Amino acid sequence: MQKEAFLKKSCTFLDTLYDDFTNAPTLPLHSFVKEKTAAVAVDMVNGFAKEGNLSSARILQINDKVAAFCAACIKRKLPVLAFADSHTRQSPEFSDYPVHCLHDSLESELTQELKSIPGIRRIDKNSTNGFLEPEFQQFLLENPQIDTFLVTGCCTDLCIQQFCLTLKAAFNRENRRCRVIVPIQLTATFDLPVHNGDFSAVCAYFNMRQNGIEILDNITL
């Protein structure tokens, strides 16, 4: 692999992806069959949106929009699941990331904007993949009719991507069709010198799209 050729080809490809995702479609919330649809908010907690080692202004920027979306879903009588990072002090994740969102801490609490919405079902998670949590598995068993998942929150290239890919693969394994839908305007990731937020998000949207996940610009209320 030669650097110059790699960069030239990659820039052309990224230009195409940028156009694809900036022109992604928008769908209204009422277009989804409510009896078959669930909304998922991933990691909209204080530790990522408001305070702590991993808090990010980018996550805070989508907080009100995600809360409004969840409230609209509750109003339409859709189940709304809110995954919340909630770690033990023994979490191996702290070898890769600074300590964050310890169980029963303020950081692990849903943001007040989400917390104040009646009817949201909180699911604690001790890894970057909420699909693995037994409570989510129980939700799937109790609701076999649900085959459409509207996924919002953070971080696009970490917890969102892992959850969506695993969810889609699990349905594929059982020869069941499902729609996993990710709206760009309702997801975000952090930005640091060692983690280009825009680049990381575009790569995640591309990877998810390649695996059958629908990438929208937004879901209107």
From TrEMBL:
<dbReference type="GO" id="GO:0008936">
    <property type="term" value="F:nicotinamidase activity"/>
</dbReference>
<protein>
    <submittedName>
        <fullName>Cysteine hydrolase</fullName>
    </submittedName>
</protein>
<dbReference type="InterPro" id="IPR044717">
    <property type="entry name" value="NIC1"/>
</dbReference>
<dbReference type="InterPro" id="IPR000868">
    <property type="entry name" value="Isochorismatase-like_dom"/>
</dbReference>
<dbReference type="Pfam" id="PF00857">
    <property type="entry name" value="Isochorismatase"/>
</dbReference>
<dbReference type="InterPro" id="IPR036380">
    <property type="entry name" value="Isochorismatase-like_sf"/>
</dbReference>
<dbReference type="GO" id="GO:0019365">
    <property type="term" value="P:pyridine nucleotide salvage"/>
</dbReference>
<keyword id="KW-0378">Hydrolase</keyword>
<feature type="domain" description="Isochorismatase-like">
    <location>
        <begin position="37"/>
        <end position="167"/>
    </location>
</feature>
